[in-house]
Amino acid sequence: MDPLLRDMRAWGLMLAATLTIMSNATITPALPGLQAMYGDDPNAELITRLLITAPSLLVALVAPFAGAVVDRLGRRPPLMAGLIVYALAGTAGLWLQSLEAILVSRLILGLGVAAIMVAQAALIGDYFEGPARGRLMGYQIAATNVGGLVFVMTAGMLAAQDPRLPFMIYGLSALMLPLLWRSLPEPSAAVEGHGPGAQDVQGEPGWQTTVAIMAIAPGLTFVFFYAVPTQLPYHLAALGLSDPVQAGEAMASMMFAAAIMAVASGWLRPVLGRIGTPVSGYSGLILGFGLLASAATLPVAMLGTALVGAGLGLAMPTFITTALNAAPAHRRGLVSGLVTSAIFLGQFLSPLVMQPLVGQYGYRTAFAVGSAGFLTLAIVLTLTLRQQKRPVDKPVAAQ
C-alpha cells in the first residue's frame, strides 16, 4: 500500500476534493427537468445551462484573492468557511422559487468552491513534496471523480422524481466539516518555509512562466471539456435517450475512468514525462470527443465519455503538480488560486463558446470542434514546454 494512504491528512484532502471541480456538474441530470419546470421563462434554455457554470464565474473572479488570503491567514479558516457557504448556497435550489434566484445561489456557491479548492490545493503543497505530492494530486483528482460519480448517479435518480431534489447533495459538506477540522491541521511550519516543503521555498527560476503555462492550458482545456456536462444531456435527448438516469450513466462512465487514470497518473508521470503525460491525456480527449460527435447509442456515448474522463484524469494532475513544484512555498496559495481561476473561467466560458456552435451546427459538430481543439492544444503545449530550458519537476528522492 502506498504510504500516503496511511496518512489521515491525505484522506482529509481527498474528501475535500470531492466537493470541488465536479460540484458544478452534480445537477447535470436535472437540467432538462428544470428547463421544463420553468418552461414559461423565455430565458429558461440559457439559464438552466448557466446553472452548471455560474459557480465557475465566481471561482474564476475570486480564486486569486482567495489564494492571497490563504497565504496570509492560513489554510484552515478559509477551508472551513468555504464548507459552510457550500452547504447553504448549494442546497438553496430546494426552496428558491425562480430560475433567476437559483442562478444567484449558484454564484454564491462559487465562493465556497473557491475557498475549498484553493485551501486544499495549498495544503497538498504544504504537507507533501516530491513524488508524494504528485501521487496525492492524482489521488485527489480521483477522489473528485469518484465523488462526482456517486453524486451524479444519485442526482440522476433524484431528478427522475423531482428536478429540485439533486440540490440536496450539496448538504454533505456540512457533514464533512467536523471530519476535516480534525484531520487537516494548520501547517504553519511549511507556510513559513520550515519543515516539509522548505527546500523549494524560493521556487524554480522562471517559476512565473511555468505557472502561467500550467494555468492557461487547463483553462482552455475546460472550455471544450465542459461541453460534456452542459450539452451531453441534451445531445442524448436528441438521440431519443431522454431518461435522466441515462445521462447520469454517461457522466458516471466519465468520472469512473477519470478516477482510475488520475490514480495512475502519479505513477505514469515519471515515465511519460512532463510533456508526454498531458499530451497522452489529450489523446484520450481527442478520441472521446470524436466518439461523442458520432454517437448514436448510449454504449457508444458512454465509451466516448470514458475516454474523455481518462484523458482529463491523466492531464489535470500534471498541470497542478507542476505549478506547485515550480512555485515558492509562500506563494502556493496564490498559485493554487491562479490555476483554480483559470480552470473555472474555462468552465464558465464553455457554454458561451459551445452553445452558439450547437445552435448553428448541432451537437455533433460542436463535439467534433472540441476534438480538433484538443489536438491543437496538445501541439501548442508540446511546443511551449520544449522551450523551457529547465525541467519543471524537481529531482526529489522517491517517497
TrEMBL record:
It is a multi-pass membrane protein. The keyword Membrane applies. Gene3D superfamilies: MFS general substrate transporter like domains (1.20.1250.20). Pfam families: MFS_1 (PF07690). It is found in: Cell membrane. Its main location: membrane. Keywords: Cell membrane, Membrane, Transmembrane, Transmembrane helix. InterPro entries: MFS, MFS_dom, MFS_Efflux_Transporters, MFS_trans_sf, Sugar_transporter_CS. The chain crosses the membrane at residues 46-67, 79-97, 103-124, 136-159, 205-227, 247-268, 280-301, 307-327, 334-354, 366-385. Residues 9-389 form the Major facilitator superfamily (MFS) profile domain. The keyword Nuclease does not apply. PANTHER family: CHLORAMPHENICOL EFFLUX PUMP RV0191 (PTHR43124:SF3), PURINE EFFLUX PUMP PBUE (PTHR43124). This is MFS transporter. It comes from Paracoccus albicereus.
